[in-house]
Structure formats: structure tokens, C-alpha cells
Design goal:
This protein is 26% helix and 22% strand. With 452 residues, it is an alpha/beta fold. The strands form seven sheets. Strands 8-20-21-22-19 form a five-stranded antiparallel β-sheet, covered by helices on one side. It has a four-stranded parallel β-sheet with strand order 12-2-1-16, with helices on one face. It is globular, with a radius of gyration of 23 Å. It starts with a strand and ends in a 20-residue tail after the last strand. The C terminus is likely disordered. The structure holds flavin-adenine dinucleotide (FAD). Flavin-adenine dinucleotide binds next to α1, β13 and α7. Pfam families: GMC_oxred_N. Keywords: FAD, Flavoprotein, Glycoprotein, Oxidoreductase, Signal.
């Protein structure tokens, strides 16, 4: 049987797809647990409330980062059946065509480009039209996949003026961001099921939907500590060790092992199993089974800055009003539970991606590109990484993909018991090219997230 670690976003999709074949049995090992009926997971408007809570979030932090005054930056990651999609912001958004075609440019073949992936994007989703989905063409929207997708049925009175403000700054309205160009401002779809008003994610729509299959077994609350590898040519992964309540167990796979523990812990598990940079493995006393200095390198993520605005009118219905106005809260609870609508189903809908050219003058851009080129030249990059940053540099110059993301959130994410604040989240990409990784984790993490 194939064994799978772990039961996150991608892991459960693979487990569900593989067990469509009755002669394949899949065992999934997941450190977190099933969070069915848990409001902070299910209820869209409560997004963010599970962050930093160790029951839901691995809650990693980086080592001190030189470029942000030596601060440790949090890295949230979902720890539950369904993984990070159980605590994410539910924005259902495809990248631009160029984002995927860049993989082909890097030489990754077998359909890992826009044309190759589009059929699978469509196969995943069941898009339900909503108030904001006018202009959305069927060609780029799947109708019958397992994951229900919906457009917000509740907006605060602030989304409209916010969109107008962006338009007045020259940001264009994109009526179908799923068609291969995700730049501009649009009304984003969300991974929310209109039939329940709840978050849709792989725990519900890929695991629960198939839990009666005899050939699918999911073990929860079990943390994999090592993949057992038999050295040789080829090296064979035969099973794994995992810990439940401080007791270590072993499991064998008769066919293969799929490692899907997310972008931080997948390389961590490879290293704990002896696949990685020999210098780092030796530092931690891990026998080297396969030397590969690229394991855990080249992490790219986006980080964000939140701008918070105080409203002149505190009666405007934002999520915070639920905390201070009991009548409003009771009405909205009823709407949510009876009709599956209202503010409790609220997700971020005003989303925009911008090329730097939108806000930077040609002189500012030219100066930054020169600095960047010099840094790339001086950096100790592998041939592959050099090719990658060259593609990214060209994307910057051509304004072909979004480099910056702005999200409007009709609530504040830091102040509680106030009705007066809304946030604008500004995301930018960071690339960790250096070594030095090691976030604080429950057991050895060989890497440190480096200075970006
Ligand atoms: C705060 C936040 C907001 C986000 N917002 C959005 C958004 O709005 N839209 C969007 O598209 N994306 C968003 N993302 C990103 C998206 O959720 C992730 O890219 C996606 O869920 C990653 O899927 P994955 O399968 O690679 O990993 P995950 O879904 O994280 O799954 C990994 C699983 O492995 C388990 N695991 C790890 N190590 C072990 C171990 N040793 N033993 C057993 N189990 C283990 C974890 O518990 C987890 O369940 C957000 C992410 C975060 C953190």
C-alpha cells in the first residue's frame, strides 16, 4: 500500500484520487486532528482566530532577521486534517499564466505549465456564481469538482469605495482573473460552500466525502519523525517512524511513500531521514543516505504588512461589530445558521495584484533593478537558481505577473472589542536564498529560515 505523510491540502487530494482505484490502499499519517464542527475553522468570518494557537497552528518562527531589525517573524502552518487550508484566508485564486509557464522554462516537463495544469484546476472546483461573479466565463471555471467555490454574499459598505479608490490610482478592473492574467483588481472567489456557508477544504471535500472507502485509512495525531530508507541504487523508501503520545511506532509501505508535509516540513523530514546537505546532517548527527545540498534551500514565501484604518462611523457593519453589538450578532448568527449567508460568511473579496510599475516611477524601478542585478551577480547561486532568478527578473521588467498583493479586510486583525477598524494587508514576495534555516519546532528542524 502507498503510505502518505501528511493529511494536509495536497495530501488528502492525492489520497482521495488514488483510492478511486479499488486495488490501491492508502494510509495517511497526520500530526493534527480532524476539526469538524469547529467554528474557528468552519466559519469564514472567524478566519485568523486559529492562528498562533498550537492546537491548530505549528506556529513556527524564523531566527532574527537582519533586514527587519532582528525581529523573529512568525510562519503560520496548519496542523490539522486538511492542513494549512484549514486556517488560511480562503482566497481562491489562480496565478497568472506566466507563473506556471515559468516551470516549463526551468525545464520541468510533463505538463507542469498553464496548459497542462488548467484541466486539473477545473477538475478540482465547483464554482457557484454569486453577486460578484458577473463576467466570469465558464471556460476557466470548473463546474463539478469536489471543492465548492463561492463569491462573497456579504460585503461591508467599504469594499465599493475601496475599489473606487484603487481605480482612481490607475488600477484596472479585471473581470476574470482566472483566465491567465491575475493582475489588477477583482472580486475574488473563496473556498466557501454556499450550501453550508462554511469553509471548503480537503478535510471535508476530499477526506470526509470518501471516508467510507475501505482502501483509505487516515491516522490522526501521529507525528512522522523519519522515513525509513534502504540504501542502494536506487535508495528505497520502505516505511516510516511516527510518534503518538510519546510512543514511537513503525509502519511499512508495500508500494511507495508520498511525502506532502508542506513547504517547511517536507524538507525537514527528508533531512531527518538522511537526505540533504551532508554538512548540515552531520551537524545534527544524522547519517547521510543521499547527499543533496538543495534540500530545504530556495524557500520563497510572501510576507505582509497591515495598514489599519479607524472608521469615522463605528456603526458600519464590519466583523468587529459582532463583538460589541449583541442585536447585530444575534441577527447575523440566525442568518448564518438558517440561510448560510450574512457577515459570518464574509471573506476577503477585494483582491488586487500589481506589477511594481503600477506604483513605482521608471527611475525608481530602474534603480531597484540595478541593485537587484548586482545582488544576484554577487550571490552564490546554483545554476538552477540563477536560471530561476533570471526568469523572475524578466517578469519584473515586463510587468507580466503581480509582484504585490493588496487585500481589503472589513475587520481588524489586532484590536479586539472595537467596532472601528478595518485592515489593508499588503503582501510582497520574499526569497530566502541563504542557508541558515532553523525555525523553532517541536523537534529537530535542521534549517533556519534565513534573512530574506
Ligand atoms: C495564514 C495563511 C493564510 C493563507 N491564505 C491563503 C489563501 O487565502 N488562499 C490560498 O490559496 N492559499 C493561502 N495560504 C496558503 C495555502 O493554505 C497553502 O499553500 C496550502 O494549504 C499548502 O498545502 P500543502 O498540502 O503543501 O501543506 P499543508 O496544507 O500545510 O499540509 C501539510 C500537512 O502536513 C502535516 N505535517 C507536517 N509535518 C508532519 C509530520 N512530521 N508528521 C505528520 N504530519 C505532518 C501538517 O500538520 C499539515 O496538515 C495561506 C497560508 C497561511 C499559513
Amino acid at each position: 500500500m502507498p503510505a502518505k505523510f501528511s493529511g494536509g491540502t495536497a495530501g488528502l487530494v492525492l489520497a482521495a484520487r488514488l483510492t478511486e482505484l479499488s486495488d490501491v490502499t492508502v494510509g495517511v499519517i497526520e500530526a493534527g486532528v480532524l476539526r469538524l464542527g469547529d467554528a474557528v475553522v468552519d466559519t469564514p468570518a472567524l478566519m485568523g482566530q486559529s492562528l498562533f494557537n498550537p492546537d491548530y497552528d505549528w506556529n513556527f518562527t524564523t531566527i532574527p532577521q537582519v533586514h527587519v531589525s532582528q525581529r523573529n517573524i512568525p510562519i503560520n502552518r496548519g496542523k490539522m486534517i486538511g492542513g494549512s487550508a484549514g486556517l488560511n484566508f480562503m482566497i481562491w485564486q489562480r496565478g497568472s499564466k506566466q507563473d506556471y509557464d515559468a516551470w516549463r522554462q526551468l525545464g520541468i516537463g510533463n505538463g507542469w505549465d498553464w496548459d497542462g495544469l488548467l484541466p486539473y484546476f477545473l477538475k478540482t472546483e465547483a464554482v457557484h456564481p454569486g453577486p460578484g461573479s458577473a463576467g466570469v466565463s465558464g471556460k476557466f471555471h470548473g463546474q463539478s469538482g469536489p471543492l465548492p467555490i463561492h463569491y462573497d454574499n456579504f460585503d461591508t459598505p467599504l469594499e465599493g469605495p475601496y475599489a473606487q479608490a484603487l481605480e482612481s490610482l490607475g488600477v484596472y478592473l479585471n473581470s476574470d482573473p482566472e483566465a491567465g492574467d491575475s493582475t489588477g483588481l477583482f472580486n475574488s472567489a473563496a473556498s466557501v460552500d454556499p450550501a453550508t456557508g462554511n469553509r471548503s477544504y480537503s478535510a471535508v471535500n476530499y477526506f470526509l466525502a470518501n471516508q467510507d472507502r475501505d482502501n483509505l485509512v487516515v491516522l490522526q495525531g501521529a507525528q512522522v519523525t523519519k522515513i525509513n530508507l534502504t540504501p542502494g541504487n536506487p535508495i528505497v523508501a520502505t516505511g516510516a517512524e511516527f510518534v503518538v503520545d510519546n510512543i514511537t511506532y513503525s509502519v511499512n509501505a508495500t508500494k511507495e511513500i508520498i511525502l506532502s508535509a508542506g513547504s517547511i516540513q517536507t524538507p525537514q523530514l527528508l533531512e531527518l531521514s538522511g537526505i540533504g546537505n551532508p554538512n548540515i546532517l552531520k551537524e545534527f548527527g544524522i547519517p547521510v543516505v543521499y547527499a543533496n545540498p538543495d534540500v530545504g534551500e530556495n524557500l520563497q514565501d510572501h510576507t505582509h504588512v497591515t495598514s489599519q484604518f479607524e472608521l469615522n462611523d463605528p456603526t458600519i457593519p464590519t466583523i468587529n461589530l459582532l463583538n460589541v453589538n449583541t442585536t447585530f450578532e444575534a441577527e447575523e448568527q440566525a442568518l448564518y445558521h438558517i440561510n448560510h449567508t450574512g457577515i459570518y460568511t464574509y471573506t476577503i473579496s477585494d483582491v488586487s495584484f500589481h506589477a511594481l510599475q503600477t506604483f513605482w516611477s521608471p527611475a525608481e524601478l530602474a534603480q531597484s533593478l540595478t541593485t537587484l542585478r548586482n545582488e544576484i551577480q554577487a550571490a552564490n547561486l546554483s545554476k538552477w537558481q540563477r536560471k530561476q532568478v533570471q526568469i523572475q527578473l524578466t517578469d519584473l521588467e515586463n510587468a507580466s505577473v503581480g509582484q504585490m498583493e493588496l487585500l481589503f479586510f472589513g475587520s481588524d486583525i489586532t484590536v479586539t472589542n472595537s467596532s472601528k477598524f478595518v485592515d489593508i494587508l499588503n503582501f510582497g514576495s520574499i526569497q530566502c536564498t541563504g542557508r541558515n534555516i532553523s525555525a523553532e519546532v517541536p523537534f529537530i528542524l535542521v534549517h533556519r529560515v534565513s534573512d530574506a
